TrEMBL record:
<comment type="similarity">
    <text>Belongs to the pyrroline-5-carboxylate reductase family.</text>
</comment>
<keyword id="KW-0028">Amino-acid biosynthesis</keyword>
<keyword id="KW-0521">NADP</keyword>
<dbReference type="InterPro" id="IPR028939">
    <property type="entry name" value="P5C_Rdtase_cat_N"/>
</dbReference>
<keyword id="KW-0641">Proline biosynthesis</keyword>
<comment type="function">
    <text>Catalyzes the reduction of 1-pyrroline-5-carboxylate (PCA) to L-proline.</text>
</comment>
<keyword id="KW-0560">Oxidoreductase</keyword>
<protein>
    <recommendedName>
        <fullName>Pyrroline-5-carboxylate reductase</fullName>
        <ecNumber>1.5.1.2</ecNumber>
    </recommendedName>
</protein>
<dbReference type="GO" id="GO:0004735">
    <property type="term" value="F:pyrroline-5-carboxylate reductase activity"/>
</dbReference>
<feature type="binding site">
    <location>
        <begin position="72"/>
        <end position="75"/>
    </location>
    <ligand>
        <name>NADP(+)</name>
    </ligand>
</feature>
<comment type="pathway">
    <text>Amino-acid biosynthesis; L-proline biosynthesis; L-proline from L-glutamate 5-semialdehyde: step 1/1.</text>
</comment>
<feature type="domain" description="Pyrroline-5-carboxylate reductase catalytic N-terminal">
    <location>
        <begin position="7"/>
        <end position="102"/>
    </location>
</feature>
<dbReference type="InterPro" id="IPR008927">
    <property type="entry name" value="6-PGluconate_DH-like_C_sf"/>
</dbReference>
<dbReference type="InterPro" id="IPR036291">
    <property type="entry name" value="NAD(P)-bd_dom_sf"/>
</dbReference>
<dbReference type="GO" id="GO:0005737">
    <property type="term" value="C:cytoplasm"/>
</dbReference>
<dbReference type="InterPro" id="IPR000304">
    <property type="entry name" value="Pyrroline-COOH_reductase"/>
</dbReference>
<dbReference type="InterPro" id="IPR029036">
    <property type="entry name" value="P5CR_dimer"/>
</dbReference>
């Protein structure tokens, strides 16, 4: 794998920013010294500074020193950040990547320069261990920059290029999705405790069962129902449990939750 040779600023090193930083270093895409992590309260980044990461409270200085700038603050924090970094932004030098939900490439340019190349990326927290599902979209970035950004995210998981108008849908399905599947695993383990296992063993069993189910789809490239048909013996216990879950709205509640998350993702940012 070709290591990146420039500098990457991650502005807003909270949950997703730090997950990205850890993943890029773990994958060997960049060394800690090539990353500059910012947040207002840098005392919270002390452990990263000790590991050799660049740490700064000055966003403009981080941008001035970087080739790739990752915007990883909350949507409602973005306008103030863009104002701070505008004097240090040089469109011919930096490519901007925004992971902020509900903020378009055009919104970002409207707070910066019209010629600034902006690529939106929607990763999830599994990026810290190289298992993200990251969707990538742009409306103006050069093909070579899109390829570099895809290469970067491919080192830490799977990448799908999408149209920008599907970005809020990607947020709900893939980024929020991590929490949805985790809650399903937690619920399964709670069921396991009710039927006789200790909490720790129930959780371990539920996690491995979920991983195996996901891997069946990934490795066999089959459809979930095809694999479900192999589990549900006639008059058996699986179909009894599965149908009970469906009578209680299992699929329906997941679908409704994803639709609501997508709506909310599209409404998180206020332009002014
Ligand atoms: N969490 C997730 O799974 C995902 C989140 N996203 C998106 O990523 C973005 C961040 O989300 P998340 O990581 O959950 O949120 P966090 O609140 O964990 O992280 C945001 C960070 O930004 C810092 N921050 C706020 N203002 C500034 C500023 N002016 N300059 C520098 N740093 C600043 C905050 O630290 P401090 O207060 O110290 O400044 C905080 O650590 C959001 O836009 C979200 O939509 C996208 C995909 C997945
Ligand atoms: O909950 C949120 O708003 C962010 C966006 C996707 C995941 N976390």
């Amino acid at each position: 794998m070709k290591q990146f040779t420039g500098k990457i600023a991650i502005l807003g090193s909270g949950n997703i920013g730090l997950s990205l930083a850890k993943g890029l270093v773990k994958a060997g895409y960049a060394k800690p010294e090539q990353l500059i992590l910012t947040r207002r309260n840098i005392a919270n980044l002390a452990e990263f500074a000790a590991l050799g990461y660049g740490v700064d409270a000055d966003n403009a200085a981080a941008v001035a020193a970087s080739d790739i700038v990752v915007l990883a603050v909350l949507p409602q924090q973005l306008n103030q950040l863009m104002e701070q970094i505008k004097p240090a932004t040089v469109p011919a030098k930096q490519v901007f990547i925004s992971v902020a939900s509900g903020v378009s490439c055009a919104d970002i340019r409207s707070k910066s320069y019209p010629e600034l190349e902006v690529i939106r990326a929607m990763p999830n927290t599994a990026i810290a261990i190289g298992q993200s599902m990251t969707c990538v979209a742009t409306d103006n970035a050069a093909a070579e920059h899109v390829e570099e950004v895809c290469r970067m995210f491919e080192t830490v998981g799977a990448v799908v290029k999408i149209n920008e108008d599907l970005m809020t849908a990607a947020t709900a399905l893939c980024a929020c999705g991590t929490a949805f599947f985790l809650r399903a695993i937690r619920a399964a383990s709670q069921g396991g405790v009710e039927i006789g296992f200790h909490a720790d063993e129930a959780l371990k069993m539920a996690v491995q069962t979920a991983k195996g189910a996901a891997d069946l789809l990934l490795q066999m490239k089959s459809h979930p129902e095809q694999e479900i048909d192999k589990v549900t013996s006639p008059k058996g216990c699986t179909i009894a449990g599965l149908n009970e879950m469906e009578h209680n709205g299992f699929s329906s509640s997941l679908i409704k939750g994803i639709k609501l998350s997508a709506l909310k993702a599209g409404a998180l940012y206020t332009k002014e």
